[in-house]
Amino acid sequence: MKIGIIGSGAMGRYFAAQFVKLGHAVSIANSRGPASLQQVASDTGAEAVTVEEATRDKNVIIVSIPQKNVPDLPKHLFAHLPKDVPVIDTCNYYPDIRDGVIPELERSGIDSLWVQQQLGISVVKVFNSITAESIAVLGRPKGDKDRIALAVSCDDAGAKEVAFGLVIALGFDPFNVGTIAQSWKQQPGSSIYCRDLKLEEIKKRVLAMGDDWSAQRDAIRTKHSADMALIIVDYAAYLKSLRD
Ligand SMILES: NC(=O)c1ccc[n+]([C@@H]2O[C@H](COP(=O)([O-])OP(=O)(O)OC[C@H]3O[C@@H](n4cnc5c(N)ncnc54)[C@H](OP(=O)(O)O)[C@@H]3O)[C@@H](O)[C@H]2O)c1
User: Fold this and answer.
1) How far is CA 208 from CA 183, 187, 201, 205, 216, in A?
2) Pocket around ligand 1: residues whose beta carbon is below 6 Å from it?
3) For residue 99, how far is its CA from the centre of ligand 1 (angstroms)?
4) Span 41-49, average pLDDT
5) Domains by residue range for the chain, with CATH
6) Residue 211: band (very low, low, confident or very high) from pLDDT cuts 50, 70, 90
7) Does position 243 have pLDDT exceeding 90, yes or no?
8) DSSP-assigned beta bridge partners for residue 89
């Protein structure tokens, strides 16, 4: 497949290296242009391109940038994509430590609903609920007893299927959380966020959350705020807390 990645941070570089290894033709872009990506290109084997090129003539596009920067992406690039090109959204909203409060997002409180509104297209939410540290080392072949699962939400069945394939290829079991309106279940602060859980445990926890966002929202947001406070002072302690 031809895969375009927007964002060359910890996540973007991971995707670039892995998908090149898996035999895909990978292009990677950032906000500063291809000249700033020569080291990333040589480390990963991906082609350094502009954001425009990362969205042109691709089979899949991955958007992996800070949530607050999503509105900076040129909307027309997404508006003109063929309908069968899935756009993967790995972004998470961190209002207290990176993104600032985004009032429009706060209205629904569902991160990827807001991303969809910003880009004017449907997205697949996946790869948001595992840390860069874990995704780099926890991929395992199918059937391995230590294989963990990753949550996937999307309104489009075809796009979700493509995302499932990518998750499996990287060594994880996909778990279908539901639609983008239900993607709050995999947002920061939820009980499956960055916990490196196996499929059965994710299933159990998602079921336990129920379907009522308004009933869960305060608890999930309170947990996310506590996590953000810990991240600022001690990231290692935050990572450890995810295992408790
Ligand atoms: N790190 C994790 O553990 C992790 C795990 C799961 C999900 N996530 C989420 O995934 C997203 C990416 O995370 P990350 O840790 O990889 O981020 P990061 O290390 O901070 O890197 C951000 C990347 O986004 C690029 N970028 C910013 N604005 C852009 C724009 N307008 N156009 C094109 N590129 C732009 C930056 O390019 P420049 O440097 O040129 O500005 C940079 O390459 C975030 O939303 C994050 O919350 C992160």
Assistant:
1) 15, 15, 11, 5, 11
2) 6-12, 29-32, 51, 64-67, 69, 72-73, 90-92, 128, 131-132
3) 11
4) 98
5) 66-241 (3.40.50.720)
6) very high
7) no
8) 63, 125
The partner residues of 63 in beta bridges, in order of sequence, read 6, 89
% pLDDT > 70, the chain: 100
* Inter-residue contact 152 to 164 (CB < 8 Å): yes
CA of 7 to the centre of ligand 1 (A): 5
Read off the pLDDT of residues 142-192 as tens digits, 9 standing for 90 and up.
Answer: 999 999 999 999 999 999 999 999 999 999 999 999 999 999 999 999 999
| Ligand 1 atom nearest to CA at 36 | 40
pLDDT of 153 reads 98
- AA identity, residue 86: P
Substitution site in 64, 114, 242 for ligand 1 pocket (most atoms within 8 Å of beta carbon): 64
pLDDT of residue 2 exceeding 90 = yes
- Ligand 1, residue 67: give the atom nearest the CA: 45
Return d(Cα 30, Cα 63) in angstroms, integer. Answer: 10
Distance 12 CA to ligand 1 centre (A): 7
Could you give the CA distance from residue 240 to residue 143 in angstroms, rounded to a whole number? 27
Dist CA 89 CA 78 (whole Å): 13
